[in-house]
Design a protein that fits this description.
By secondary structure, this protein is an alpha/beta fold. The chain contains 23 helices and 19 strands. The strands form 4 sheets. The protein has a 9-stranded mixed sheet, sandwiched between helices. A 4-stranded antiparallel sheet has the order 1-13-12-11, sandwiched between helices. The longest helix has 19 residues. The protein is globular, with a radius of gyration of 23 Å.
């Protein structure tokens, strides 16, 4: 069956979510709504009993000469919890933090003895969280020295420390700058004091600007900030002022992120209770995206990838670009995610089992997954669309059948999402706003062309994605990820095996969302669990929650 015939054969709701809709304003109406957080395809979970031996075999192997590689290091502590965050793991005390850094350094040391790591090069390290900047100066220094000792850093390595403005004080800055940090990623979200404090940020606009200036004055690192559009109380005027403050701050780059209001988040509850105003609708977010894009382009900012902008040549966003390209990423720390040589992984999010496993010389897996055989194709699609284009010829060179993707992209060209220059398809501004939807649909179309599989991912990820009830049965709820279905109907009275599995899947999604792993890893793990039995999912849940 051709790709066009396949899409004609599926339910209209699924077809609209995958292909989108013809409309006058594609920025706001090209798709019914955002349907996934991160695009990708499923893999196959490895039995927990086999995970360690599989990993040991991988780590005894040799790296591919000349291949770029990354490391992700997770710090699972926060002093405060932002209401929009779906990744909070642990509060902290000094003794808990000290013990954790002991284990993390032990995990780094153990890996450093393996040929797969020590014989290659690491080009980018990202210390994420959580809130890595909340570590004490002593523990920051211990960790940074261990990174330089145990990871084979390339000469031009990028070492990013992620954190919050509240921690940018001299005693911390001195340690970071003296121990190899050359990129700081600071979560500002909004400069507006009222908007910031509504979502759990502590500092005023004046403090934010003062501390960014102090960090810039060191001259030792690229300074990048995160801004979010669509926050409660963030009108278009507030967003315009946020962008003006970004430019006037003189930082080297920025990430402009669309707000996702996750189910179960404090922000979702605050909106529902009326404590804070509603978040922006998709249509409003589209307007804010377009305004931000035009504003920065007019001021000579250069777009590095879907959400990343550079003000000058100091900001490379190397880790983010390499991560989207699917290069090997070695994970370290409780809740970290990564991928190495065809395997994706998440490390245990609970501190005690994490520390116990490291002390026994084991990689502390919560889950290990064999990636899809299509992963090389996935890497090409995700990487290119992150850069704002797709060259179908590169995919056809890998598998001639993928020429059929031209049908899909010609449809999107008619709908104003891409333009064709005779060689490749470039995303329009509307296409850039809908990058994740376009990427996920491209991957699913590619999977159908190569394997004949009808794969369809659907998540409730933003405030405007409301749950509905079944017309046939008011006691049924339409929700969640569906594989090969437009949606899944889940009876509220959980009695059958299928219903038990769905309940376990829902709980697993909640636990994985809290893990702090990179979003792609978490999403792939969730989708792969759909192929397990209820008993197997329950076994994994015991590992997650122990």
């Amino acid at each position: 069956m051709s790709l066009a015939s396949f899409f004609e054969s599926i339910p209209e709701k699924q077809r609209n979510l995958q292909l989108g809709l013809a409309c006058d304003n594609p920025m706001s109406g090209a798709f019914p709504h955002k349907r996934v957080v991160h695009a990708g395809l499923n893999g196959t979970l490895i039995s927990p009993k086999e995970s360690q031996s599989v990993w040991d075999t991988v780590m005894r192997g040799a790296p591919k000469r000349g291949q770029m590689q990354c490391a992700y290091i997770h710090i699972p502590f926060c002093k405060t919890k932002c209401t929009y965050c779906g990744f909070f793991q642990n509060g902290t005390s000094q003794s808990i933090e000290d013990n954790y850094i002991d284990g993390l350094i032990g995990e780094l040391k153990l890996a450093s003895e393996s040929p797969r790591l020590k014989d290659g090069l690491i080009h980018a390290v990202f210390i994420g969280g959580g809130t890595p900047t909340s570590l004490s100066p002593a523990n920051s220094e211990r960790l940074l020295k261990a990174i330089k000792e145990y990871l084979p850093l390339a000469n031009d390595y990028e070492l990013t420390l992620e954190g919050r403005i509240h921690d940018l004080i001299p005693e911390n800055l001195e340690v970071w700058m003296n121990n190899g940090v050359n990129r700081m990623s600071i979560g500002i979200q909004s400069f507006n004091t009222k908007v910031r404090q509504m979502v759990g940020r502590l500092d005023t606009k004046e403090t934010v600007l003062e501390r960014l200036a102090a960090l810039k004055a060191y001259g030792q690192c690229s300074v990048v900030i995160d801004l979010i559009y669509g926050l409660p109380g963030q009108t278009m005027d507030v967003w315009e002022q946020d962008l003006a403050d970004l430019v006037s701050s003189g930082v080297d780059g920025a990430d402009l992120y669309q707000l996702n209001v996750f189910d179960g988040s404090d922000l979702n509850r605050d909106i529902a209770s009326g404590k804070v105003p509603p978040a922006a609708t998709t249509s409003m977010q589209g307007d804010m995206f377009e305004f931000g894009r035009t504003y920065l382009e007019a001021r000579a900012y250069r777009r590095l990838s879907a959400a990343h902008w550079s003000a000058n040549n100091r900001e490379r966003s190397l880790y983010n670009i390499l991560a989207k390209a699917g290069v090997p990423m070695f994970p370290f720390g409780s809740g970290a995610g990564g991928n190495v040589d065809g395997y994706g992984m998440m490390l245990h999010r609970a501190l005690k089992p994490y520390e116990d496993m490291v002390s026994r010389g084991e990689k502390p897996f919560m889950a290990l997954m064999k990636q899809s055989d299509l992963q090389p194709f996935v890497n090409q699609v995700v990487s290119q669309l992150e850069q704002g284009y797709l060259d179908i010829n590169t995919l056809v060179a890998m598998d001639s059948r993928l020429d059929e993707l031209n049908w899909l992209y010609k449809l999107w060209e008619k709908r104003g999402l891409v333009s064709y220059n005779g060689l490749l398809y470039k995303l329009t501004s509307a296409g850039e706003f809908w990058t994740v939807n376009i990427t996920q649909s491209t991957l699913e179309a590619m999977e159908y062309i190569i394997t004949g599989k009808n794969s369809f991912a659907l998540e409730s990820v933003v405030a405007q994605d409301t749950k509905t009830t079944s017309k046939e049965n008011p006691n049924q709820e339409i929700r969640g990820i569906g594989q090969g279905k437009a949606n899944i109907s889940v009876p509220t009275d959980e009695q059958t095996e299928a219903q038990r599995k769905e309940a376990l899947m829902t709980k697993a999604k909640e636990e994985i969302a809290k893990s702090g792993a990179s979003g792609e890893s978490a999403n792939r793990m969730i989708q792969a669990m759909a192929n397990l039995s209820a008993d197997e999912i329950e076994y994994m849940m015991e590992r997650m929650m122990s």
